[in-house]
Amino acid sequence: MWITLIYKFINMKKLIVSTLVLCGALSFAQSTPLMIHNYSKLSLEGRLMACSRINPGGYPVAFAAPNLPYGVYTVPPLTTDVEYVTLNTSAASLLPILKWYVTTAGGTTAYNYNDPSMAGISSSVEWAMYHFVTKDDQGNGVDTFTMGNPIVSNMAGFSTNLYQLGTTAEAEWFSISGMVYLQVYDY
């Protein structure tokens, strides 16, 4: 009888420790990859941001540096399947992000995506918003969109939309099956 009780206690202890380790790993991981689909004939030019959903001020707040060869973070026309799993793996995307500008209460620092600090930063943020201007093939601005998760972006003082209708395009931001999506369409 005592052996059975000790055996059950040890197994319960292993189960509890395993559960706590799993919960800890999941709570310290950027849990939602971002997938961008630009189905429109317009380019999207603006600021892609991730921030904390629990810290006042949204700190840390991370903004994507311009992706080459553009001067701002840009998603070209008719470009789909742009996936960012985490900030520190963003160079592996179809549109690589090589640098992030990270703001904390102490100021702003530029980090390469593979800087060791980015793993910690990446684990403490969620995708918050993409504030962008749609531009035609001549480079003329058409519409301005502020898309994102209103709860997360609000932590950093930004107001965002889940759906927005412009003059020639519409955009939606939503989460499904553990993935955040931004989709832009012509209409």
Task: Tell me about this structure.
The protein is of the alpha+beta class. The chain has one domain. Helix content is 21%, strand content 41%. The chain contains three helices and twelve strands, in the order αβββββββαββαβββ. The strands form two sheets. Strands 2, 3, 4, 6, 7, 8 and 9 form a seven-stranded antiparallel sheet that branches. The protein has a five-stranded mixed sheet with strand order 5-1-12-11-10, with no helix packed on it. Strand 6 (99-104) and strand 7 form a beta hairpin. The longest helix is centred in the N-terminal third of the chain and has 26 residues, at 2-27. The relative contact order is 0.20. Residues 14-29 have low confidence and may be disordered.
Outline the fold blueprint.
Layout: H1 2-27, E1 34-38, E2 43-51, E3 61-64, E4 73-75, E5 79-84, E6 99-104, E7 107-112, H2 116-123, E8 126-135, E9 141-148, H3 150-155, E10 163-165, E11 169-176, E12 179-186
Parallel strand pairs: 1-12
Antiparallel strand pairs: 1-5, 2-3, 2-4, 2-8, 3-6, 6-7, 8-9, 10-11, 11-12
Could you tell me the number of beta strands?
12
**Can you tell me the residue ranges where pLDDT is under 50 for at least 5 consecutive residues?**
14-29
Radius of gyration: 20 Å
How much of the residues is beta strand, in percent?
35-45%
Which structural class do you get from the secondary structure elements? alpha+beta
